[in-house]
Amino acid sequence: MTDAATPTASRPRAPAAGLLQVTVPPAGASAGPGRRRWWARLRRDRTLLIMTLPALVLLAVFGYAPMLGLVMAFQDYDLYDGFVHSPWVGLANFQQLFTDPGFWHAFWNTLALFSVQLILFFPVPIALAILLDSLLSRRLRGIIQAVVTLPHFFSFVLVVTIFNEVFGGAGLLDTYLRSHGVTSPFDFMTDPGTFKLLATSQLIWKEAGWSTIVYLAALSAISPALHEAAAVDGAGYWRRLRYITLPGLKGITVLLLILNLGYALTFGFEQMLIQLPAVGSGAAQVITTFSFENGIVAGNYSYGAAAGLFLGVTSVILILSANKVAHLFGEDGLYRK
Amino acid sequence: MSRRGFLTAAAGTVGAVAAQPLLTACGSGAASVKPGAASTSLLQRILPHYTPSSLVKPDYPSIDGSPPAYLSYPSDLVRTVAETPGSGGSYTGITPLWGTIPSANNPFAQAVNKALGATVSVNPANGNNYSTILPQLFSGNKLPDWIQVPTFWAPPLNFGEAAATRLADLTPYLAGDKVSKYPNLAAIFSNGWQAGIWDDKLYGFPSYTAGFNYGYQLYYRADLLDKLGIGTPSVKSINDLFDLAKEVNDPAAKRWALGDIFGYLYQPFGYANWMLDDKGNLITQYESPGIIEAMNWMAKAVKAGLVHPDQVAGNFGNGVTEFYSGQMVIVSDGSGAWNAADAQKGQAANKGYTRASFDFFTATGSGTPRMPLEAATAWTSYLNKRLSASQIEEILRIGNYLAAPFGSVEYNLLNYGVEGVDYTMTGTGPKLTAAGTQYAGSAVSTYNFLVSPNSTTYNAGYPAVTKAAASWGQRNAKYGYQPLFYELNVTVPNNVSSANAFTPFDPNTGIMHEVVRGRASIADYQSTLANWKRNGGNKLKAFYEGVLTQQKKLGSA
Q1: Residues 71-90 in A contacting B (C-alpha not used; CB under 8 Å)
Q2: B63 CB neighbour count, 10 Å cutoff
Q3: Residue B368: what pLDDT?
Q4: How far apart are CA B70 and CA B74, in angstroms?
Q5: Chain B contacts of A303, Cβ < 8 Å?
């Protein structure tokens, strides 16, 4: 996932394939050329296919099998009747969902929060990667990279706690201000108006360093010869950035942007759930927390599943549309067309 | 912390009270009350007969149901279970634990198992998300042999149905005189057993049963008020409380007067989960005028900067620490907060630390204070239906051991462990060793949540805490009253179950939380309430009106 190269690029090339094709005995008379080609490709790629098998099994068991549970979105699910005996209610759960103002609030709030985070967060790791790449001292670069990557491994509970200790009403900043005559200093942690910025800064602090790794890899793939040639031709730093570095990052940037859109509706569950009491549902309620509150906490599983299914379908549509747009602009997107 | 989790859940499910005349609706969507509900005489036949036992004479006897209290630890422990109760069986259990989870099969657990003559492997689970693991256990039919299901977390599980399909019916083993085989179980108050009755059958074991059981009380730091020259405060009305809060508040010195005490305000402002309005109509607490006044008062306190910023932010995790360090002076908490462990931790943080509690009061300052009682216990454990009759009998004998009262050899083992290993006996009572603190100390609730004797108050090494808490109980128990649907396990029909979750009124994320913090107005509150009524709330009320009518008919309301 971190590599921009499409899977096809890493396949064994023609010679091996050709050899295999020669040794394959003709298939049964009934098999057409299409089928033979398919079989041949299967044989040719068998090592690779076997290598992907564990991942596929994992995906099937933990990704696809639980999806069967989504049938409860069309049922009035009862814990003890199970999927088999719970009564079917058709689209009743969705009707209730689409007329629930709480749901639509969560939906639009999700998109608003996501947009702000996307616009403010997305460029940060790119800038950071370019900055790090331009550092000559490898030692210094290593230290900085370690420092900015570390918060990725913190859970949001810790991140929010650290932010609270610094910016909260009883935190370092406000305590300092209060002891210097400011009677009621601003409390960043409980202000719903600035919550989008707060949530984004938490995300940047936690994830920006980690996200640079991919871009650094892409940057190292740009041949230094290009930079040297451009420099010889008289291109300054900004020109080289504009015509060599950024185009070199374009493919990976588009890929990550699309993948990010896939998370548009599911992001930040933990982050929001923790901060819901601080800023209120007006600012922090997103679809995932809505689904959790109404499904798991209130024991209304069918309703929660309906919200979850809506979220899944919408996410797929978002990814596919973004991919389409990428193809229109001549980029690879998620896969090569 | 545990108390907050507890009350969050309790408030979220409102009528989370234990059984009395056993009115339950079928879970399949019918909005009518199931006919044939039990009368008092049927209840008499189901409930185990209460045979009191008192090994030690309390220093503070029970008054109006307050738990009896002991200042010293008895020197002659009495053996109440003559034979080893177990016959070598092996059982699994799950109970919630708020705190550090001890390693499995630790020395304390081994000592208990040896005494029981059976292997009871209880797996304590994190109390903070206990409510979210229960549905998986029930729906997947992966229940252990013995499981704690607090009454306030039962509604999302549709518990009447759960009991019938997943849990063992204990009526044939314990009803009436049959309990006499197990004298320690027989010594638990009947209204503790009532909490475990579903659909006219006895399923559950009670823990921590007490007659005078209430949700919250208002605590303050007596030592801090002394230091500020205020002395023993006299709070007779909600205005007195506001004035006192203003007096002690000093954010520049990192001292705030109040925690988020909104959860307590139902006491002075006089509302209860379900109640009758002036015209005699059934209403929920959310429709009472009292709750509006309470929100206004709390919002005023927040706006005046009297409430600790972390509490305003909904970060309750540090609440206890902030109380210990003196950052908060007045907080609300359950009765369980006032004990030796609290005094020990508080004094470690702050040498003079003394917790004290305001007596119940009325908002206006006139009239008699009232406090709606909670069911005699909210903690009930159940057995798996798959157990055989002989296994159930073995567990009942084990339960008889676990329910041994204060002053017995068995109680001593379960609460303090093995002498010389887990505790040493001092002049002021048993004192836990390092190993004892690690295992016996942290695992006490593990066994107590399976079944435990009626609540008593004893604080090893801290008789002053016992004195203060017990005399507070003796003074205030008389203000307790039984609210509507007291001790009644109600399973609501499916079509009103989501209204019964009271999600819009969630204490941490709901509308009241917003109003108190100035992010929503009373008008917003009213529209949320109207919306809740439209989306099933009115149907839920109609259902409860039916329950009330039937209760009246049976002469128990």
Answers
A1: 76, 78-80, 82
A2: 17
A3: 96
A4: 9
A5: 498
**What is the pLDDT, as a whole number, of residue B45?**
85
The verdict on a CB contact (< 8 Å) between A168 and B132 is no
Q: How far is A285 from chain B (nearest CA, A)?
A: 9
Q: Does any CB of chain B come closer than 8 Å to the CB of residue A291?
A: no
CB contact under 8 A, A293 and B161: no
ipTM over cut 0.90: no
Q: In this complex, do A82 and B305 lie within 8 Å of one another by their Cβ atoms? A: no
Q: Domain-by-domain residue ranges, chain A? A: 91-328
Chain A environment of B161 (Cβ under 8 Å): 78-80
Which sign does the torsion angle of CA A199, A205, A207, A211 carry? positive
* Rounded distance between C-alpha atoms, residue B506 and residue B531, angstroms: 15
Q: CATH fold of B60-213+377-476, please? A: D-Maltodextrin-Binding Protein; domain 2 (3.40.190)
Check CB contact of B519 with chain A, cutoff 8 Å. Answer: yes
Among A294, A80, A75, CA closest to B158: A80
- A50 CB within 8 Å of a chain B CB: no
CATH number assigned to the domain covering A91-328: 1.10.3720.10
Q: CA A153, A156, A158, A160: dihedral to nearest 10 degrees? A: 140
Span(s) in chain B for CATH 3.40.190.10: 60-213+377-476, 217-372
Residue B147 Cα distances to A226, B113, B124, B296, angstroms:
69, 18, 10, 41
Determine the residue of chain B that is closest to A273 in CA distance. B509
What pLDDT sits at residue B414? 94
A322 and A265 Cβ atoms separated by less than 8 Å: no
| Residue A63 contacts B, CB cutoff 8 Å | no
**Mean pLDDT in order along chain A per 10 residues (337 residues):** 40 39 44 73 90 94 90 87 86 90 90 91 92 87 92 93 90 89 84 92 93 90 89 88 89 85 81 89 88 82 90 88 84 74
pLDDT of amino acid A27: 45
Cα→Cα distances A214→A126, A155, A221, A277, B529, Å: 9, 21, 11, 35, 50
> What CA–CA distance (Å, rounded) separates A303 from B533?
18
Looking at the complex, does the CB of residue A23 fall below 8 Å from at least one CB of chain B?
no
Long-range residue pairs from A11-16, CB within 8 A, at least 24 positions apart, any chain: A11/A45, A11/A48, A12/A44, A12/A45, A16/A44
Chain A positions in Cβ-Cβ contact with residue B167 (cut-off 8 Å) = none
Ranges under pLDDT 70 in chain B: 1-41, 555-557
Q: Distance, in angstroms, between A300 CA and closest chain B CA?
A: 6
Q: SS in 3 state form for chain A?
A: CCCCCCHHHHCCCHHHHHHHHHHCCCCCCCCCHHHHHHHHHHHHCHHHHHHHHHHHHHHHHHHHHHHHHHHHHHECCCCCCHHHHCCECCCHHHHHHHCCHHHHHHHHHHHHHHHHHHHHHCHHHHHHHHHHHCCCCHHHHHHHHHHHHHHHHCCHHHHHHHHHHHHCCCCHHHHHHHCCCCCCCCCHHHCHHHHHHHHHHHHHHHHHHHHHHHHHHHHHCCCHHHHHHHHHCCCCHHHHHHHHHHHHHHHHHHHHHHHHHHCCCCCCHHHHHHHHHHHCHHHHCCHHHHHHHHHHHCCCHHHHHHHHHHHHHHHHHHHHHHHHHHHHCCCCCCCCC
Residue B41 has a pLDDT of: 66
How far is A320 from chain B, CA to nearest CA, in Å? 34
pLDDT value, residue A138: 87
* Domain made up of B217-372: CATH architecture: 3-Layer(aba) Sandwich (3.40)
- Is A79 within 8 Å of B158 when comparing Cβ atoms? yes
The answer to whether A80 contacts B156, with C-beta atoms less than 8 Å apart, is no
pLDDT at residue number A33: 62
